[in-house]
Amino acid sequence: MNKIYFITGASGSGKTTTLKLLEEENKKNFAFCYFDSVGVPSGEEMEKQYGSGENWQKSMILFWVKEMKEKYLDQTPTILDGQMRISFIDEACKQNGVNEYVIILFDCSDMERTKRLIKRGHPELANPDMFNWAKYLRNEATNRGAIIIDTSNFSIEESKKTLLETLQ
Fold first, then answer.
1. Closest CA to 85 of 63, 64, 42, 54
2. What's the rounded Cα separation, in Å, for the pair 83 and 18?
3. pLDDT score at 28
4. Sequence ranges of the domains in the chain
5. Residue pair 7/143 in contact by the 8 Å Cβ criterion
6. Residues 6 or more apart from 123 whose CB is under 8 A from it?
7. Whole-prediction pTM
8. Residue 144 Ramachandran class (φ > 0 left, ψ -120 to 50 alpha, else beta)
9. What is the pLDDT of residues 130-156, one digit of tens each?
10. Based on the number of CB atoms within 10 Å of its own CB, is 80 exposed (0-12), middle (13-18) or buried (19 or more)?
């Protein structure tokens, strides 16, 4: 069975931009999945249907792992991009019997994140909640021993090159 590569990180870390570039070139024949493509309900909807945003995220990661295992893993390694708690990834893989997976955190400084989010037209995301989320993910990745790619001083090409080296 092939591996699933989970690319996680807070908004502005460069994960999706890097993966879109890699997907365009797709020299390694990966299947690419994007967590948010299922649609992200409002906080109120998450609360109503799942009890909390955390429960929604946990449910969606479980959905994605099952989906990737059924659709792709027999044929090709698969990449899932999204803002995901690492503990939820571990739990979903365990529940689905997926043992071959790698977690990679894309990270950057808060200053760089702010620049990127403003440039992207989302200055409202450059806030203390996002910075705390990034810190939480960084701590979780460090504690688990996950791979961390700090893109603070990388161009998109450097991020792609570093990720490709990590995927080998």
1. 54
2. 14
3. 67
4. 4-167
5. no
6. 117
7. 0.94
8. alpha
9. 999 999 999 999 999 999 999 999 999
10. buried
